[in-house]
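Regression test case RT-17, inverse folding.

Input:
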C-alpha cells in the first residue's frame, strides 16, 4: 500500500475542498515528509493521478487578484471516499516493518466509529502475533541472535520491534476503550489542520 494515497485523500477530505499547497502544508505540519514519501513532487503527482482515476474531482477556480494561473482545488468523489476508507481500514490492520502506512492510519483513525477502530486495532495485534510466529519458526529469541551469526541480529530486531508494537497497540486500544479522543460517530474529530496563511514551523528548510 502507498502511504501517499491515504495521506493525500485524508488531507483533502478534512478540508472538504483543498488545493495542492494546502495539502502539502498539512502533511508537512504533520511531519509526513520525515516519515513517508510525502514530498512536494509526489503530493502534486498524487493529486493529479487520483483526479484522472476518478477519486478526486478537480475544480479550477479563478486566479488571485495578484495574477497567475487558475488554482485547482480538489474534492473527494464518492469513489474517492470509498477508496479512502478502504485504505484506512487496511492500514490499521496490516503489520510490516515500515512505519509510514501505520503512522498515516493512526493519524486518520478518528474518521471511523470508535468500536470499529478498536476492532481493527485488535485485529492488528493478532496479525502482529502471527507475523512474529512466522519469524520464530526460523529463529528462537531465547537462544540469542548469535545462533544465526550476525544475520541473527536482523531477526532479533524484528522480534523486538513486533513485541514493542504489540504492547503499544494494546495500550492504544485500552485508551480508546476508556474514552480517549473523539471519533466519527461522536462528533467532530480533531483534525490538526494548519490555519490558513499560518506559518508552518515544521516545513522543511
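Golden output:
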Amino acid at each position: 500500500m502507498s502511504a501517499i494515497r491515504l495521506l493525500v485523500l485524508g488531507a483533502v477530505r478534512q478540508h472538504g475542498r483543498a488545493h495542492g499547497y494546502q495539502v502539502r502544508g498539512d502533511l508537512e505540519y504533520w511531519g509526513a515528509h520525515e516519515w513517508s514519501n510525502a514530498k512536494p513532487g509526489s503530493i502534486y503527482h498524487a493529486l493529479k493521478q487520483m483526479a484522472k482515476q476518478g477519486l478526486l474531482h478537480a475544480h479550477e477556480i479563478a486566479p488571485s487578484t495578484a495574477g497567475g494561473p487558475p488554482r485547482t482545488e480538489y474534492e473527494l468523489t464518492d469513489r474517492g471516499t470509498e477508496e479512502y476508507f478502504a485504505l484506512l481500514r487496511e492500514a490499521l490492520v496490516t503489520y510490516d516493518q515500515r512505519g509510514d502506512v501505520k503512522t498515516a492510519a493512526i493519524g486518520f483513525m478518528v474518521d471511523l466509529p470508535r468500536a470499529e477502530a478498536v476492532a481493527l486495532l485488535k485485529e492488528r495485534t493478532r496479525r502482529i502475533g502471527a507475523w512474529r510466529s512466522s519469524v520464530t519458526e526460523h529463529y528462537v529469541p531465547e537462544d540469542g541472535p548469535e545462533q544465526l551469526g550476525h544475520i541473527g541480529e536482523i531477526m532479533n530486531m524484528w522480534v523486538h520491534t513486533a513485541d514493542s508494537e504489540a504492547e503499544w497497540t494494546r495500550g492504544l486500544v485500552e485508551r480508546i476503550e476508556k474514552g480517549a479522543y473523539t471519533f466519527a460517530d461522536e462528533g467532530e474529530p480533531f483534525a490538526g489542520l494548519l490555519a490558513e496563511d499560518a506559518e508552518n514551523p515544521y516545513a522543511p528548510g
